[in-house]
Amino acid sequence: MAEEKESTSVPLSQAVDPEDPAKTPPTSPNSSTRKACCAVLQSWVSRKFMTGCVVLFPVAVTFFITWWFIQFVDGFFSPLYAKLGVDIFGLGFLTSLLFVFLVGIFVSSWLGATIFWLGEWFIKRMPLVRHIYSASKQISTAISSDQNAAAFKEVAIIRHPRVGEYAFGFITSSVILQSDKGDEELCSVYVPTNHLYIGDIFLVNSEEIIRPNLSIREGIEIIVSGGMTMPQMIAPLEQIPRKNQSIRLNRIP
């Protein structure tokens, strides 16, 4: 037994040191090729999986929000149909759309506009609700297709806050500043600082404003998305002579 133990023992000089690369046994070519193939396959699978996530994520979010919106709107009139014994999915949603359409027709009339004005007057007298209503009304007015005096006029790019840096904004109105050097036309540019409903107002010379080839909706999408929907190229619009619809500020003597 002692002879067998002595024959199987390995001298310390011939022991393999794992920290010494010179003494480690060389790897076979097949093992290196197998590791390289596994690494390439893992990288390819990871890239394709991330590509699938990038493609399916907006689709899933769109379907989820659309489905939630349909269920939310459908819930307004679905209980009424349930009491009548009618159980058809989507009927409440269609009824809600028809109700919104009829409300639009009613508010367009003189009687509807008067009732709506009275209700708005009452809401604006409520302490907390008036702020929420005013902010939501400004946003809905800004993105509406009816470009009235209260809506955003144009998308604007101004130099802010330092030279060489620019900020997105919306032209809301124009004003004539009278000074000793002469009259100067200034545009009121609203620059959102918190998505869309909070921002700063800057009076900028109309000649220093860059008017890009973007619609109001595209400008709002850029700001709300944090710049992720920014087009790769923006070109300024051609200066079109417009009638001066600005408001004059009287100088204080």
UniProtKB/TrEMBL annotation:
One Pfam annotation reads DUF502
| Entry GO terms, CC | Golgi apparatus
**Which regions span the lipid bilayer?**
49-70, 90-118
Region of interest: Disordered: 1-33
Alphabetically sorted, this entry's keywords are: Membrane, Transmembrane, Transmembrane helix
What is this protein's record name?
Answer: Protein LIKE COV 2
Supply the source organism for this entry: Elaeis guineensis var. tenera
